[in-house]
Amino acid sequence: MRARTSGVIKLSAIYSAPGIIYIYSGYLSHTSVQACFECSLAYPKQAGRVYHVACHKIVRHELGQAILTRAPAVTDSEDQMTLNEFIEDAFNTEHEYLMDALGDITTDELMWRAGPDANPIGWILWHMTRVEDMWFQFFIQRETEIWARDGWDEKFGLPVRDNGFDHTLEQVAAFPAYDLAEMLKYGAEVRAATLNYLKTVTPKQMDIVPREARPEMSIGRIFRQVVGEVYQHQGHIAYLKGLQRSGK
């Protein structure tokens, strides 16, 4: 049973039995929404396997309108979402959000600043991509960053070692406009390299500290930091785009 109020699915009844989890699947405002019958939390998700953090369950569900599905509780470790799969899914979802925000953006919107102390979308996108490149290629693996290895610094006419850390207001103001399609190509190379590296990391290796000078930055901590940072900056980009268009 279910009730809808104010655009949010609320569950009026919860049923569970040993080894069984029920999932409500439906469409709400053209967005697929699932609500877990263990904790009544509604959340958007694609069809497939989901690790529901709130109640620590592995569940399976199907997309559909007003479909009530039943799935056995999963106990086989091969069917459980691993930490690496969770991180990969987080990166892939962030990329979807980012592409939605950048899909129809103009050059003027890319370089617009909300005020003299604000960063433009173009600077934010460059910075978040450069930082991901730096952490996984240079800091962890001690490899040449993709930015320098593939000549992206020369293509954009920007410094080889710069990534935006400690930029002054003057540096941000002087940051040049660029071809968004080319920056996204660089970003695609960086993300592919990140995910390829992720596939090689075991759970025990997440605790390795790559650089003695930064003992607080283990491999696992770096993954956590980068995932958090790209989501934060993706939110900045979507907000700045909306802020510009709200005045038109």
Outline of the structure:
The chain is of the alpha+beta class. The chain has helices spanning 83-102, 107-111, 121-140, 146-149, 152-156, 169-173, 180-198, 219-246; strands spanning 2-5, 8-11, 20-28, 31-36, 42-44, 48-52, 57-61, 67-72.
- The ordered string of helix (H) and strand (E) elements is EEEEEEEEHHHHHHHH
Give the beta-strand count. Answer: 8
Radius of gyration (CA) equals 21 Å
Detail the poorly predicted runs. 1-74
Structural class: alpha+beta
What is the domain total for the residues? 2
CATH architecture of the largest domain: Up-down Bundle
- The CATH homologous superfamily of the largest domain is named dinb family like domain
**Helix percentage:** 40-55%
Cα(first) to Cα(last) distance is 44 Å
Count of DSSP-assigned helices: 8
With strands numbered from the N-terminus, the spatial order across the biggest sheet is 5-4-3-8
Mean pLDDT: 78
CATH topology group of the largest domain:
Four Helix Bundle (Hemerythrin (Met), subunit A)
